[in-house]
Amino acid sequence: MSSKTPYKVLCVCLGNICRSPTAEVVLRHFCDEKQLNVIVDSAGTSNYHPNKAPDSRSQKHAIKRGYDLSSLRARQLKTQDFLEFDLILAMDHENFDDIQDLLKQAIQQFSASQIRSTIALMSEHDQQYPQQALPDPYYGEADGFERVIDQCESSSQAWVNVLQQQFQYK
Ligand code: 4NP
Q1: CB 19 less than 6 A from any atom of ligand 1
Q2: Could you tell me which CATH number the domain at 7-168 has?
Q3: What would the mean pLDDT of 138-166 be, rounded to a whole number?
Q4: Per-residue confidence (pLDDT) for residue 3, from 0 to 100
């Protein structure tokens, strides 16, 4: 990564209204704190909630922890994203498989040489939640939304350590 070209990360869940918007804002916070040249965005594998603001429960829990999700709007993951983003972070294993399936379409539509993205789990380097899914809070209670923030903080800090090292040796 040159010092001028931002590294681009896309956080992906199913609906893009609970987990991935939270991950987007939390990861951005930790990247900014370390002054990393990283752009963070989010998307959903489904198109269940196009252009919707994050779930009000996600917003309520996040703002209490200092994270403002209010300006975000949901969108579906698209094949062009594989040309644009360096790293695509899946919130759970099903998201991971769905992203891989769309990657196959992107390779057909474009060509393998144009694909920029590496796909990984949000929890890939997280010692506290190693390779664990970020549980979907949508049909659950308040504790599920708090857990999403806990895991996003822990996994984001782990990713920031990895990215810092990656940028140092480039
Ligand atoms: P998310 O949660 O994937 O974390 O945004 C969900 C949001 C909506 C639905 C499922 C999960 N839904 O079925 O509408």
Answers
A1: yes
A2: 3.40.50.2300
A3: 98
A4: 55
